[in-house]
Amino acid sequence: MTQLRITEIFHSLQGESRTVGLPTVFVRLTGCPLRCVWCDTEYSFTGGTKRELDDILAEVASYGADYVCVTGGEPLAQKACLELLSALCDAGYEVSLETSGALDIAPVDPRVVVVMDLKAPGSGELAKNRWENLAHIKAQDQLKFVIADRQDYDWSRMVIDQHGLAGRCELLFSPVHGSSPRQLAEWILADKLKVRMQVQLHKYVWNNEPGH
Prior knowledge:
The protein is an alpha/beta fold. Helices cover 24% and strands 25% of the residues.
């Protein structure tokens, strides 16, 4: 029987991405090979509880939501994540995967919306970007840049230009929580960038309480 190590499963509003504000079930897998400076889910690095796939699916179904987000940590660090994603799609959910971009996304079920980070210098994990993943990004997917300062912003613009990312999929610019969202907004408008700026809605609604 397929098992995964789960940190938590909870029902909340999606705080980021194209489906922001929509009721969503979050399945947070345990473990992550990265250590981003601004990480807000360090509690998911270790621990968790081993749960069978059928048990996970049953809890997800109990919330009655249409959207499911598989996140972490880094969910792809567990090989069984791929089976979980396909099972959720088979069950009729609209499924998204939040991934750091450090692990191979090629085997991910094509029905899944991949929300993939590209780690800017301020993350401390620039070297972990797996650039080969860009070849597997679909039009429905989203690339996320978490931006701490002007250096991160300029790096993000450079990456978009160098890899021809504009128009390939939706591009998300997120200020590190606690930094100035206004400053980032003004940079985007001044440069006429075709990106979606987002803030982490759940942190404003629930003040970053666990389980949201």
